[in-house]
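Morning!

This is the sequence you dropped in the shared folder:
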Amino acid sequence: MAKRDYYEVLGVSRGASADELKRAFRKLAAKYHPDANPGDAEAEERFKELNEAYQTLSDPEKRARYDQFGHAANDPGFGAGGANFGFDGFGSGFGDIFDIFFGGAAGQSGRRNGPERGPDLRYDLTVTLEEVASGTEKPIKVVREETCSRCHGNQAEPGTRIETCPDCRGRGEVERISDSFLGRIRRIESCSRCRGTGRIIAQPCKACAGHGVVRAEKRLTVKVPPGVDDSTRLRVQGEGAAGRRGGGPGDLIVFIRVAEHERFRRDGDDLWMDLRIGFAQAALGAEISVEGLSGDAQTVHVPAGTQTHTVFRLSKSGLPRLGSNSVRGNLNVRTIVEVPTHLNAKEREVLHMWADMRSESVQPEDKGILRKMKDALGR
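The structure's back. Tokens below.
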């Protein structure tokens, strides 16, 4: 059964804020918690699904990856990130469940309202095989969130005051105590007055509408080292999205893709190419000049009697190994013996003589109508 979309699981929109995610999670988690539904397997599965969805969407980095890659971002082998959240032990979301039913530690809200690092961003970059061989620097453009230059990220219009929320006293959360069939339950909820920020901003910044960040285009130059391949990920530190509340920016992750080449095929550090040679060259031998990836000419010594698909190796004429200045692959030249498809009369005559000498059975030579008439008259 395919996984449901995490936003659908929590019943929120894709643009939901962190506070909206938290409120939706707590409401549904209280409804489907196993303690409130003893013996209900369906409620237990729903609770597991809620926990997994919230753990992904409440983490800015995981949420950014999920928005780009969907459920594949939670695969254990994905990049440096994804993690699976099982029901046993409730993953790292146990603290949120603990807050709902038993009350959270006092110091937790301060961490949630403190500096928040910006999410990493992905950029797909295509390079040529020639650029893989030599390394290159590529100019790119990235659209990202940057700290607002007017309010410097504090979200308030310059010159105005930011006050501590009187309801939560700057914690961003308030305590609610209620009675239920489970007994007295202590709930820690996001403060509705300040929306979990712990601050009251009377006049939001006009440039960023109180968000503290603005979308902007940034031009960068990415240094691509020699030897990269389709599995290479380049991390450009500090060039991701802006952080919140004084947090640092995320990183830019550059995903490398190597374009196909019209003459060369790649196998790790080695290169492969096909060399088409004539029938006579294969039979008698030849010295043939080939052009490598960098444009330099090298000589391939083809011995007499070479068969098609014979491979000649040109040592250290392949690609450099990523991260090494001394290791380099080979260039493998595979011969393709071409059989002529169009022969003139002289060429056909020579080949028939050659076939006769080797006692090879071939199609009889077509002498043409005039020659056939002369043979019939004995002339």
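Headline: Residues 79-111 have pLDDT under 50 and may be disordered.

More detail when I'm at my desk.
O.
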